[in-house]
């Protein structure tokens, strides 16, 4: 559960998890054996942080009573086993498909995701595309940044691998990142460093596309004097 939640607030969330219709301040106070004011303070904090919300009003003796229920964030504050389930799926897929087919499958999966994100990159130049990519990666939890220090070309660095444990066991997972970045930037990608292989960051550098290289070469050739064309 979230570290910012106190032990007493954990108890409140646990009671609400077990009572889907919600509980009132008085009901929570009775079950926790603490004052109504103390419960109100905890509820105010949990509501402010988005873990609980006001539920349906129960009418008792003609008087409406406000109850509180968990939000999605409140439900998700309890332990989940996503990594375990993902590992189970990848193990089965690798057994049935083989490592290369699994890698190709993850490549196709990343391409499908990229298709849904590409409209956000429409009309953007290279620098704008990089900014948008960094924003999307940070929304996913990568804690990404653009490294422009030094004499080498700029690189994309992620200091948090969002599936680090999985990538250590299934290095095919890295194909998902490489493909997604390449498709969104419309550039070939060089994977320079990988946290799953012991690197300090996951580091990617874009390479100019074959079309851009050809256009640059053609432009340079056209600027040569006519005599140079004849010699060549």
UniProtKB/TrEMBL annotation:
Top-rank lineage group of the source organism: Bacteria
InterPro entries listed in its UniProt record: ArsR-like_HTH (IPR011991), HTH_11 (IPR013196), HTH_MarR-typ (IPR000835), WH-like_DNA-bd_sf (IPR036388), WH_DNA-bd_sf (IPR036390)
CDD domains assigned to the protein according to its UniProt record, in alphabetical order: HTH_ARSR
Molecular functions per Gene Ontology: DNA-binding transcription factor activity
PROSITE patterns registered for this protein in UniProt: HTH_MARR_2
Domain HTH marR-type: from-to ranges: 1-111
Name of the protein this chain belongs to: Putative transcriptional regulator
Species the sequence originates in: Methylomicrobium album BG8
UniProt lineage: Bacteria, Pseudomonadati, Pseudomonadota, Gammaproteobacteria, Methylococcales
């Amino acid at each position: 559960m979230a570290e910012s939640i106190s032990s007493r607030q954990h108890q409140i969330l646990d009671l609400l998890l077990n009572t889907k219709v919600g509980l009132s301040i008085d009901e929570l106070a009775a079950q926790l054996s603490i004052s109504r004011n103390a419960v109100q303070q905890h509820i105010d904090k949990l509501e402010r942080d988005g873990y609980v919300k006001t539920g349906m009003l129960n009418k008792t003796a003609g008087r409406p009573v406000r109850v509180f229920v968990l939000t999605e964030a409140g439900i998700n504050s309890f332990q989940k086993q996503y990594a375990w389930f993902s590992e189970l799926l990848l193990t089965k897929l690798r057994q049935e498909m083989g490592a290369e087919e699994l890698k190709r499958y993850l490549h196709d999966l990343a391409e499908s995701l990229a298709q849904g994100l590409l409209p956000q990159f429409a009309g953007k130049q290279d620098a704008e595309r990089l900014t948008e990519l960094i924003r999307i990666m940070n929304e996913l939890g990568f804690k990404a940044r653009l490294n422009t220090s030094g004499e080498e070309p700029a690189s994309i660095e992620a200091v948090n691998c969002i599936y680090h444990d999985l990538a250590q066991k299934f290095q095919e997972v890295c194909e998902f990142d490489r493909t997604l970045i390449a498709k969104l930037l419309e550039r070939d990608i060089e994977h320079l460093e990988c946290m799953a292989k012991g690197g300090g960051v996951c580091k990617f550098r874009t390479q100019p596309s074959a079309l851009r290289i050809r256009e640059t070469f053609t432009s340079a050739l056209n600027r040569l004097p006519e005599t140079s064309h004849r010699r060549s």
